[in-house]
Amino acid sequence: MFSIRNDPLSRVVSLVGRDRDRVFAAEDRLRATRGSIQDFRGASTKRKGSFVDGVPGMDVLRGVYTLTQINHVTIDSLIFRLHSNATVILLVTFSIAITTRQYVGNPIECMHTRDIPEDVLNTYCWIHSTYTVIDAFVKKQGSQVAYPGVDNSQAAGNKNSIKQVKYYQWVAFMLFFQAILFYTPRWLWKSWEGGKIRALMLDLDIGICAENEKRMKKQLMIDYLLENFTYHNWWAYKYYFCEVLALINVIGQMFLMNRFFDGAFLSFGIRVLEFMDSDQEDRIDPIIQVFPKMTKCTFYKYGVSGEVERHDAICILPLNVVNEKIYVFLWFWFILLAMLTLLTIVYRIIIILSPRMRMYLLRMRYRLMKKEDIDLIVRQSKMGDWFLFYMLGENVDSVIFRDVIHELARKLRGHHLDFPRGFKNDMQEP
Asked: What is the Cα–Cα distance from 76 to 186, expressed in whole angstroms?
């Protein structure tokens, strides 16, 4: 047997099935024209797959609705979902696209001689990386060099003028690793949130239900809010920590990408914008410098006499056509995410420090509520309670939530009542 604690949240979880039984029994009494109603288990069994007057059973409709609404519980902010949902989907999609491109066609094509098999040279240059000559980017294409970055490497002499291009075989793995990092704050918050919002909702996101059911669920919610008044600060702070973690993650990933591209990513987007505004004759394309489409590869092999022979090959990297577009987009996307998340953190700090701001936000967001009810609840509650009220308002039907807040405020005004534990009748600070 399972033991159930005698507190409102436990009653919410344990009674949610029983109140549904009562609703189904009421529906059966209205539809039935003969006989008495059996217990809920027998009635629900009889309802499965049955039709009453040509209409499918209500349990089928409820099942379909539950399936369609299973992921529609809001437990975080829109900016946080941009990190955990939108960005993760983008990064996984990019990773799959790059992986597919590697196996559809050749990711690298190198010009070879008859002495070296094509597959051997392509595989060698893919595994051991290619390189570009830095000085060749400033030379004129067609007269001084064949292509920007491709020149006589032996004539360059200085090893510092050679830039290795070795990231392309790791791009798909890196994008997938980034997706995992972006989802980590969401995973932490889902673990810490523990399904509290879903349990307290009690399927009240739709206001069309039996009055008895609605009244019982509202009372359960009010009981929980009263008994656990002022006890939600740590719960809210855990979410705020996840938002800070999301900001640290997106900034850290900018530096991670900068390291991945040998220091060329942090200023990449700025240089792209400067390139677009500069004169066509004098400008140097930064995209070609970071994502060259043509590179060089040096292959050594033994000759006929046993001497080591050097072969310089020119390689085409068609994969970089895709890579450059992905990372140009990601640079601007990461900058946008960082700015929006930073503003969100500032917003959270203001909320924590200012009870008046919490009042104002509830008034603006939930206009159906009475001003005096909101003011009383915010004055008596702490910041964590405000956050719970706000999340419940995002998920529960607006009329039902208005009634819950009104009843909660009415009970808080009843000074003659024995206040439950956690309740304090003075101004609460965070």
From this structure: 9
